[in-house]
Amino acid sequence: MTLSFHNFSAPLWFLALLAVAALGFGYVVVLRSRRKRTLRFANLELLEKVTSAGPSRWRHVPAILMVLALLLLTTAMAGPTAEQRVPRNRATVMLVIDVSLSMEATDVAPTRLKAAQVAAKSFAQGLTPGVNLGLITFAGTATVLVAPTTDRAPVAQAIDHLKLAQSTATGEAIFAALQSIDGFSQVVGGPDGPPPARIVLMSDGKQTIPTENEDDPRGSFTAAKAAADKKIPITTISFGTVDGTVEIEGRTQSVAVDDSAMQEIAKLSGGDFYKAATADQLRKVYDTLGEQIGYEIKLADASRPWLILGTLVALLAAATSLVFNQRLP
């Protein structure tokens, strides 16, 4: 939480500090005037004898505390605000997971797919209730398994039953996510417009369909640009290592992770890129995304602490006045 002088909802209340300053100045003037009258009419010899037994400096403590209380209460009335982390009450996230055959690689134990399933389920179940989460898988084609919903059960169930298939149609997956978000936004959009949306894309390989050219009309880079036009950032997670291999039709094939393509997709869409080479790293990435997506920073009222402190100081001023001056201030 951060607070600055500029974050006040009713700063004109600070003009009341002029009255507080006037009270403090008046208190000093009254004390000096009283002392002058005392010196003018008192017997100096007698005054010197009783001065040591006269009022102590502690008698000023209640007045000082009361001025401090007024300062605190005035600040509270000025409406201080602070940045606070609050759960989102409306957002749409499409989780897009690569299920191409390369996800069978064991460079991430037990396999890339199994590790991805565990991390994705944890991410889904940890999202704040106000986030609508959908799920898309893709290999040679993209499939919307779960439309955006606040119910995490169907998403978790679908993640448990992911099946591998040939090829990698990354661009088609992004276009499918955009279409799903558009459809959902038309249903839930209100006076404030559709909820903010984001795509979380996890993949380990290079696009192979429709071609290996990401700038193809249905390619991943073209899709990323379309996402940017709709102001839907794509957070990409490049999962795996350069040492990954799989057995396909009795032959060992290298399935090295393609970081550069995932970085470019994130950049073109205005999103973020993450690299995860282990199951633990992937879990941490999803934890980070859960914090970013599930919560937002908003200015919220922060006057309560000032009000409480001002009230307590005012009560303390009254108590010390009774002790030192035998009266209320």
Summarize the model shown.
The strands form 3 sheets. This protein has a 6-stranded mixed β-sheet with strand order 4-3-2-5-6-9, with helices on both faces.
- From the 3D structure, determine the CATH topology of the largest domain: Rossmann fold
- The overall number of domains is 2
Uncertain segments of ≥5 residues (pLDDT<50)?
A: none
Shape: elongated
Q: How many helices does DSSP assign?
A: 10
Instruction: Supply Rg.
Output: 33 Å
> How would you name the CATH homologous superfamily of the largest domain?
von Willebrand factor, type A domain
| Secondary-structure element string | HHHEEHEEHHEHEEEHEHEH
Number of β-strand runs:
10
Can you tell me the CATH class of the largest domain?
A: Alpha Beta
Q: What structural class should be given to the helix and strand makeup?
A: alpha/beta
The overall average pLDDT, rounded, is 86
Please report which band the strand proportion falls in: under 5%, 5-15%, 15-25%, 25-35%, 35-45% or over 45%.
15-25%
Largest sheet: 6 strands, mixed
